[in-house]
């Protein structure tokens, strides 16, 4: 027997909520789905962009070509992003510890300088930075003394630049996290004779794991996806991070390679997805605090 009970007000609201949620899921996933379909079609323009490939039209050639073209850039990005992310998070944690837990003069002006550093746009420092690494500290020439190639020096300069740019935001995030710490715990350690360094290493650092997950994911994503600094300070060549060859992938005078571009975008984004999966639980805890 068919149930003909009319929908109540709560049922209508619940149905409308589910409908809105489904529409949002479709809205956010449709670009990814369309890109994925374009990357596995032999002829991207043969069917509508969001439709699966026609029978006989499936191919993995775009993924193979993209992986081969971006292999060197992926390795350079790993060399760039891993140390830059760890250093900026660690130095930001130390700075926040000194600005929050310790008591010394001029804390507020120093904190204001850190906060001001967050709002400096990349474009405002491009010319000074390029002149600094080219003339004042020509690190690409200095590494030649020890037998390394110039692009290694360019990559080191890019790492230092991203560390310097990432410290302010990491400091602010860690300071917000440390302000909720129990002062009695740190004070008890001081009474027991623990030094400032020992308190940070034995108490503050182990309790900072959730916020480290937040800053590591944030910084890794920012550094990995950066194109502006990479293009100006390193440029195309042996030391170029993955975003530089990705911007040139599939471009030619005769056609636009939509398939290889979409495949390249997925290949380049894969490491950031892996980082989110590895630190997702700690990231949720850090955001919730």
From TrEMBL:
Topology with respect to the bilayer: Multi-pass membrane protein
TM region(s), chain numbering: 16-36, 78-100, 106-125, 158-178, 199-221, 258-279
UniProt KW keywords: Membrane, Transmembrane, Transmembrane helix, Transport
A Pfam family the protein falls into: BPD_transp_1
Gene Ontology CC annotations of this record: plasma membrane
Protein's UniProt keywords contain Lipid metabolism: no
Subcellular location per the Swiss-Prot or TrEMBL entry: Cell membrane; Membrane
Gene3D superfamilies, per database record: MetI-like (1.10.3720.10)
PROSITE patterns named among the record's database cross-references: ABC_TM1 (PS50928)
GO terms of biological process kind: transmembrane transport
Listed InterPro entries: MetI-like, MetI-like_sf
Domain ABC transmembrane type-1 residue range list: 74-279
Family assignment from sequence similarity: Belongs to the binding-protein-dependent transport system permease family.
Identification of the protein by name: Sugar ABC transporter permease
Organism of this sequence: Halarchaeum grantii
């Amino acid at each position: 027997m068919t149930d003909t009970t009319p929908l109540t007000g709560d049922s209508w609201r619940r149905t409308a909520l589910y409908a809105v949620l489904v529409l949002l899921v479709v809205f956010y996933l449709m670009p990814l789905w369309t890109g994925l379909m374009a990357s596995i079609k032999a002829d991207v323009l043969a069917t509508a962009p969001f439709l699966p490939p026609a029978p006989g039209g499936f191919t993995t050639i775009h993924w193979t070509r993209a992986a081969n073209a971006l292999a060197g850039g992926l390795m350079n990005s790993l060399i760039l992003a891993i140390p830059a992310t760890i250093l900026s998070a660690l130095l930001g944690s130390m700075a926040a510890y000194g600005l929050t837990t310790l008591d010394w003069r001029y804390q507020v002006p120093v904190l204001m300088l850190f906060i001001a550093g967050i709002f400096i746009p990349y474009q405002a420092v491009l010319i000074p930075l390029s002149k600094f690494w080219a003339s004042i500290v020509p690190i690409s020439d200095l590494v030649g003394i020890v037998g390394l190639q110039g692009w290694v020096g360019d990559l080191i300069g890019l790492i230092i630049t991203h560390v310097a740019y990432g410290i302010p935001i990491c400091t602010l995030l860690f300071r917000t996290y440390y302000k909720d710490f129990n002062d009695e715990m740190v004070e008890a350690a001081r009474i027991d004779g623990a030094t400032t360094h020992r308190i940070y290493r034995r108490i503050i650092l182990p309790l900072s794991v959730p916020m480290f997950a937040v800053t590591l994911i944030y910084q890794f994503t920012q550094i990995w996806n950066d194109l502006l600094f990479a293009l100006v300070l390193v440029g195309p060549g042996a030391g170029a991070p993955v975003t530089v060859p990705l911007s040139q992938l599939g471009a030619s005078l005769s056609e636009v390679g939509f398939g290889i571009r979409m495949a390249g975008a997925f290949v380049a984004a894969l490491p950031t997805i892996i980082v989110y999966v590895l630190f997702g639980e700690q990231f949720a805890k850090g955001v919730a605090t």
